[in-house]
Design goal:
- Helices cover about 40% and strands about 25% of the residues.
- It contains 5 helices and 8 strands.
- The protein has helices at about 5-25, 30-40, 60-65, 140-150, 160-175, and strands at about 25-30, 50-55, 70-75, 80-85, 90-100, 105, 125-130, 130-135.
- The strands form 2 sheets. Strands 1, 2, 3, 4, 5 and 6 form a 6-stranded mixed β-sheet that branches. Strands 7-8 form a two-stranded antiparallel sheet.
- Strand 3 and strand 4 form a beta hairpin.
- Helix 1 (about 5-25) packs across helix 3 (about 60-65).
- It is globular and about 40 Å long.
Length: about 180
């Protein structure tokens, strides 16, 4: 594992938590770092840092990140996801909205209005060392990793996703909160 890269990413996660707090908004880790924060330690190298944020906060979030030295990157439609880079690390913010029933949905782009897993934002918090961060629920993380190739035809199943699912299921069993 590249310890220097992991340390840089952890510093940027901590910085993002502080930026969100200062801006009065919520962000949630998703992807591999969300799994690691649930487990409590880095388990593998990560290419980037994946987040969820509310679409209503997107403009203020982008302004705050630019002020903090992040560079805006091209990417998916801006109403769907915002991509930034700092210190050679990409951070992507998938944007969330709520439908008329109060369910969490994809905010924009080709999947606008599609439901995210129920309970995804259930107040899960993870920790690595002294750093605490909101994360998506482990069950939602598993569902997303299992379903992404179905939801996005043509996206291959990735070995790292299968390994992450195995780690998350083992951690849930260890905590006695998951029936396998």
């Amino acid at each position: 594992m590249d310890r220097e890269r992991s340390a840089r990413q952890l510093r940027l996660i901590g910085e993002m938590v502080e930026i969100a707090k200062a801006l009065g908004m919520e962000v949630w880790l998703r992807g591999g770092w969300a799994m690691d924060f649930f487990i409590g330690e880095p388990t593998r190298d990560h290419e980037d840092i994946d987040w969820f944020a509310w679409a209503d906060d997107a403009s203020a979030l982008a302004d705050g990140l630019l002020r903090a030295g992040y560079e805006r990157l091209p990417g998916p439609p801006a109403e769907q996801q915002l991509d930034f880079c700092k210190q050679g690390v990409e951070s992507s913010f998938a944007l969330l909205d709520k439908d008329r029933f109060g369910r969490v949905v994809v905010a924009g782009g080709p999947w606008a209005g599609e439901l995210w897993p129920e309970g995804m934002l259930d107040d899960s918090v993870g920790r690595i060392g002294p750093l605490w961060c909101r994360i998506i629920s482990p069950r939602a993380q598993i569902e997303i990793k299992q379903m992404m190739p179905v939801w996005v035809p043509g996206r291959p199943r990735r070995m790292k996703d299968a390994e992450d699912i195995t780690r998350l299921e083992a951690a849930l069993r260890e905590q006695g909160t998951h029936s396998a």
